[in-house]
């Protein structure tokens, strides 16, 4: 839209600004668009999108509105001079002045920094695994959730997947997940989806997100097989294995990042989320997640053995693969255990035959 047209609108929906991406020192002339998020655009290309709730005001000279964003690189800035547009934007940013941390926020950060500082010393003295166990319960949930969000976008990029949303399939999936979640005693903050990637995999991210990959679903022959996998991943969530693994794998550099960097942003997060997506859990964490899954399945009156069969079918006897699979306990051993501790079905099937068919087709567009 041209300028004249824009001036006739009461509330401008786009406006000019200067943008620094936080990576290079280059100043870019951009156009901002007030969509679901604040879109930062250059030559019809969206460079970044900032959620309104994450936008914060930064000190600036008079006549300039200068902004940062919690999920953007720490040094990324926007500068806006158009006052009408600035006012419209500010009215949408609910947390714009939350930068000045409340007393509690400061206390949390100081406390957490102290914990990190003590931990670094402890790491040197005692080694990481012990510290990871001790420190995990101290990681603030808000931090964990944000970490999960960053990891979430990396998962989608890394595995080149979209979340499948065929309506009937989605309905069946929600039914299955809800049954397992309730039986596992986890609250509704757990979110899950089927990702269109052909990799036979599944994993959980901090903050409560579980992904099942279509590649694993394709190899499954019944709902019990998948239910056990989902229950296993919920087990990781419940035990916060991701945070533990992160501290363990990321080690001191992660802790130092937390200590000196801002908790909400930047490098610690990016480093952390990468580690999350590529690393695996300890054998102990896997065994515990399997125990959790067996337990949940039994509480649902369903057998645990099918999950073991699925894993063995996917990996062969070698047990090579990703996440749910790669992490050591050989599929054969896991199947043996799940068979040993199996109970025959005493409850109704988790999905009807038709719902199972819909779930299997969740990544196919509806005809
Ligand atoms: Zn696992």
Structural class: alpha+beta
Apparent shape:
elongated
Distance between the termini: 37 Å
Q: Which residues form runs of ≥5 with pLDDT under 50? A: 1-9, 260-268, 319-328
Walk across the major sheet and give the strand order: 4-3-2-1-7-6-5
* Series of H and E elements: HEEEEEEEHHHHHEEEHHHHHHHHH
Distinct small molecules: zinc ion
Average predicted confidence as pLDDT: 78
Based on CA atoms alone, the radius of gyration comes out at 24 Å
- Strand percentage lies at 5-15%
Number of strands: 10
The major pleated sheet works out as:
7 strands, antiparallel
User: How much helix, percentage-wise, in residues?
Assistant: 40-55%
Number of helices: 15
Description:
The protein is of the alpha+beta class and 367 residues long. It has helices at residues 3-8, 83-92, 103-126, 128-135, 141-158, 167-184, 214-219, 223-238, 241-260, 266-278, 283-299, 305-315, 323-326, 331-340, 353-360; strands at 14-20, 28-34, 38-42, 45-50, 55-58, 65-69, 77-80, 191-195, 202-205, 209-213. The chain is elongated, with a radius of gyration of 24 Å. Mean pLDDT is 78; it is low at 1-9, 260-268 and 319-328. The protein binds zinc ion. Zinc ion is lined by residues 232, 236, 281, 286, 289, 324, 327.
Could you name the key traits of this structure?
single chain; elongated; disordered N terminus; 15 helices; 7-stranded antiparallel β-sheet; 367 residues; alpha+beta; 14% strand; binds zinc ion; 3-stranded mixed β-sheet
Task: Give a nutshell description of this structure.
The chain has 15 helices and 10 strands.
């Amino acid at each position: 839209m041209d300028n004249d047209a824009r001036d006739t609108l009461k509330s401008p929906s786009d406006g000019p600004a200067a943008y620094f991406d936080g990576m290079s020192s280059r100043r870019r002339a951009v156009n901002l668009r007030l969509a679901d998020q604040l879109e930062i655009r250059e030559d019809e290309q969206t460079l970044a999108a900032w959620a309104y709730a994450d936008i914060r005001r930064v000190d600036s000279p008079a006549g300039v509105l200068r902004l940062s964003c919690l999920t953007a690189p720490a040094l990324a800035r926007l500068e806006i001079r158009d006052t009408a547009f600035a006012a419209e934007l500010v009215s949408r940013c609910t947390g714009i002045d939350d930068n000045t941390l409340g007393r509690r926020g400061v206390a949390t950060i100081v406390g957490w920094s102290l914990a990190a500082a003590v931990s670094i010393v402890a790491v040197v003295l005692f080694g990481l695994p012990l510290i990871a166990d001790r420190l995990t319960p101290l990681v603030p949930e808000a931090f964990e959730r944000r970490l999960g969000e960053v990891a979430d976008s990396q998962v989608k990029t890394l595995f080149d997947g979209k979340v499948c949303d065929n309506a009937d399939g989605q309905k069946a999936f929600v039914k299955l997940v809800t049954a397992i979640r309730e039986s596992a005693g986890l609250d509704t903050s757990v979110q899950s989806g089927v990702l269109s990637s052909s990799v036979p995999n599944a994993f959980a991210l901090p903050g409560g997100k579980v992904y099942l990959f279509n590649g694993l679903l394709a190899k499954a022959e019944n709902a019990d097989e998948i239910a056990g996998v989902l229950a296993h991943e919920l087990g990781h969530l419940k035990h916060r294995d991701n945070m533990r693994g992160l501290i363990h794998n990321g080690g001191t550099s992660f802790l130092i990042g937390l200590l000196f960097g801002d908790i909400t942003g930047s490098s610690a997060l990016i480093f952390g989320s990468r580690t999350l997506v590529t690393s695996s859990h300890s054998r102990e964490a896997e065994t515990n997640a399997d125990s959790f899954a067996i337990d949940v399945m039994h509480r649902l009156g369903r057998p645990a053995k099918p999950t073991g069969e699925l894993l063995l079918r996917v990996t062969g006897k070698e047990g090579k693969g990703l996440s749910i699979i790669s992490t050591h306990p050989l599929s054969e051993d896991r199947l043996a255990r799940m068979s040993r501790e199996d109970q025959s079905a005493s409850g109704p099937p988790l999905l009807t035959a038709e719902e199972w068919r819909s779930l299997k087709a969740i990544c196919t567009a509806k005809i």
